[in-house]
Amino acid sequence: MPAHPSTAPTTRPAAATGSAVHLEGVTKSYGATTVLHGIDLSLAPGELVCLLGPSGCGKTTALRCIAGLEQVTAGRVRIGDADVTEVPVSRRDIGMVFQQYSLFPHLTVARNVEFGLAMRRVSRAERARRIGELLEIVGLDHLAERYPHELSGGQQQRVALARALVTRPRALLLDEPLSALDAKVRVRLREQIRAIQTELGITTIFVTHDQEEALAVSDRVAVMEAGRIAQLGTPEDLYRRPASPFVADFVGLSNRVDGELRGDRVILRGLPIPVIPASVPTSTGVAGARVTAYVRPEHTLLRGGSGEAASDLTGTVLSSGFLGSIRRTVVQFSDGSTVASQHGAGEAYRAGDRVTVAFAAEAVTVEPRV
C-alpha cells in the first residue's frame, strides 16, 4: 500500500493467539438437498485456511455454519474448547468480513470501527485506544474522519476488516472479501490482510473461488467439491501433488495428455513419467490402462526441432504469447492434440515453428480415459 502520514500511536498490540476452530462431521441440508456432506476440518490457533472451490461447492455454506448464520443439520462446530453448534451468532465471538462492505454511510471511518465496541459497552477511553491501534494497522489512521463515500473500494474493505478485528474476536471469517475490487488492488489488499492476520495471530477462514488468491495467502487450503473436501494441504502440496483430477484441474493450469499406465509410470507419447499414487483409482491401476495425465505447462518443455525426424513428440507452434517474465506457447501434434508450455520469455517461438516436446520427470495425476 502507498505510504501515508500517521498520527496514531505507534505501539501495536502484542500478537494474540487465536482459538482453534473445528468442524466435526458437519452436514447441512435444505429439505432433500444436502449441501455439506459430513465436513471434518480443524484449524490450529493462528492458522489461515482457505476454502477454495467453484460456485455451488458449499464453501460459503461451511463458513456460515461456523458463523452461526446457518444451523447445521448434523455434526458439531467448536471454537476453542467450546461447542458452539447451538450458540447464536452474537455470542460466538467471531469477526466477519463479506464481499459487500456493509459500512454505515452516515458514520465516519472511526465511528464505523467503533460500532462493535459500543455495542459491547467498552469504555470510551478503551474504544479510542483500540480504534487508533486498528486504523494504524490497516493504514487508515489519517482517514479516520472521512465517510465511506469518500473512500476507494480497497479503503472501504480495510475499514470493514478493522471493524471485524477491533473487538478481538476468537476467529475471523472472510467471505470473498476481495472479489469486488480490481486486480491490482486485490493483490495489494490480500498481501496486507495476510500481514495483519500474521501480526495479530488470529485464526482465519478465507473463502474464495480464486485459486491464485488461495495459494498466495494460506497456510493450508481445503479444496471443496460438491459439498466435500477433495483435498486439504499446503499450497505447495495441492499444486505439486494434487490427489485427484478435480484438484489438478481446478488448482492451476494443466495439460491433459493421453497415456498408458505401466506400473508406477504413465507413458506419455513414448516418455515414462511418474504417477502420483493417490490419484490412481484401484480399478484402473493395471498395466496397459488407458488414462489421461494432468501435466503442468511449466513441466512441458520445448526445443527447436526443425532438423529432427518427425516423432510423437514433434509438433507445430500454434501461438506464443508474451506474459512479462514468461511466455506461453501452444503446440499442436500431428494427431490434432495440443499442449501448452510455460517457459522463459527469452525462448521465443513463432506460429508455424517446428518444435520437439518433452515432459519433465515430475509426478502427475491421472484419471481413466473415457
UniProtKB/TrEMBL annotation:
<dbReference type="InterPro" id="IPR013611">
    <property type="entry name" value="Transp-assoc_OB_typ2"/>
</dbReference>
<protein>
    <submittedName>
        <fullName>ABC transporter ATP-binding protein</fullName>
    </submittedName>
</protein>
<feature type="domain" description="ABC transporter">
    <location>
        <begin position="21"/>
        <end position="251"/>
    </location>
</feature>
<dbReference type="InterPro" id="IPR008995">
    <property type="entry name" value="Mo/tungstate-bd_C_term_dom"/>
</dbReference>
<dbReference type="GO" id="GO:0005524">
    <property type="term" value="F:ATP binding"/>
</dbReference>
<dbReference type="InterPro" id="IPR003593">
    <property type="entry name" value="AAA+_ATPase"/>
</dbReference>
<dbReference type="InterPro" id="IPR027417">
    <property type="entry name" value="P-loop_NTPase"/>
</dbReference>
<dbReference type="Pfam" id="PF08402">
    <property type="entry name" value="TOBE_2"/>
</dbReference>
<keyword id="KW-0813">Transport</keyword>
<dbReference type="InterPro" id="IPR017871">
    <property type="entry name" value="ABC_transporter-like_CS"/>
</dbReference>
<dbReference type="InterPro" id="IPR050093">
    <property type="entry name" value="ABC_SmlMolc_Importer"/>
</dbReference>
<dbReference type="InterPro" id="IPR003439">
    <property type="entry name" value="ABC_transporter-like_ATP-bd"/>
</dbReference>
<keyword id="KW-0067">ATP-binding</keyword>
<keyword id="KW-0547">Nucleotide-binding</keyword>
<dbReference type="Pfam" id="PF00005">
    <property type="entry name" value="ABC_tran"/>
</dbReference>
